[in-house]
Amino acid sequence: MCLFLAGLALTIHSVTIVLLEYFSSLIVTTVTKSHSEFLEFPAVTICPNNRIHCTNLHERIEWHLANPQASDSRILGTLCELFVLTRCDASHLTARLFDAYDESASFSTICAFLGNDTINHLKDPDGDSQLLKDFLMLNLYDSLPESEMIAIAHQPDDLIKECTWMNEVSQSCREFMNGSKTFVAPYIGVCYSFNYETDEALQVSLVGELYGLNLELNVNSMNTMQGGFTPSLGVRLILHERDKLPLTSTAGISLGTNTETNIVIRALKNTRQPAPFPSECLDDWPDDVKETLNGVDIKYQDNLCQSFCLDQFIQDACNCTLTLVLDYDRQLSHRCQLHDPIEGLCVSEIASPHSLKKLTKSCTQCRPSCEETRFETHVNGLTWPSQYYWAHLAEKYNVTFQGNVIESKKVVDHNALSLVSDDPDIDDVNEVLRKIEQLILLEKAF
Question: Does the pLDDT at position 371 exceed 60?
Fold first, then answer.
């Protein structure tokens, strides 16, 4: 009898504990499906994979040289270092030869003031690995003011050749093509946004390409950085909520060249509960993160919070900011000089598995958002333009087609002779010729 009572008492005690724990943290999961007559269209952000448009960089250097009183010698020096390091001299020459048929084009000496030693070092930085060269380029790029980054990037009116919303060139499209929403994402470079931070939401009620957004983009491959700094051609496209920053480092769809890409979008809305519920979701930034935003109004996102947490982790250890991990630069510290032996070693140690485990434990304050919309996509692509559409496209954008391409090759061959005799850097000449030969074969294929 005593054993029975003792067992009953323990059972009642255990059940009581379980019930108290259950009622202290209620978990309610509700899944609903509803039909809506209208759906709100997301913001769309595009970022070219190529940070620097070589002809725009050349023109920016020319502007600084022509306006010494308004120029900063340090900025001019950085722009020229980028021009040489990224082999933009070769890309700029290619564009002039191929696009403009400029028979007077030659390798630019616009940055000769740097001196032969500096130029030769930038062309081959002591045999550094591609990774160290990437770090050097990023450090030079990051040291530029934002206005200069935008000036040397692909410009929106050249990148976005056509934009229609609901099969019309709407006001939203005109603003998009004018770059009214332009920002610099440290992770990838300059980006342009459609339907971002607008007063009125765009809505769709029917499916199909005629009832959404249609874009025609031109990545202008001849003005791409060389030397391995642009591994892939195309753009990154990010779908995001209209009032939230696009996360270029953790989200996005890669759009290749010569491809018609069709994207079907489905919006998933998640609603979570704050503490004491298990999700412990947040509507606002944790206090320690909010202090570092310096009053800038940025909507809370858990992935962005994780990015800030990693940034703070690196700052505490190395006293610098690693822009490669950022979607938004709070400018709290100088950029990590990754080609510097001390800072480079510090950052590499931070990236070790042991350090990342510490980071995971220290970022627990970055909880999921209480209200969140995620966009699922289904993507398919076709070759574009077709053989029969290419002639129409060439006339539409005033680019070379068929017979004219052969004429451009004559210009290149003629120019190559003088370049080889005048410029000892024959490798660069051959690189230009190989690239143009590939372009000729590509266009002849159409």
Answer: yes
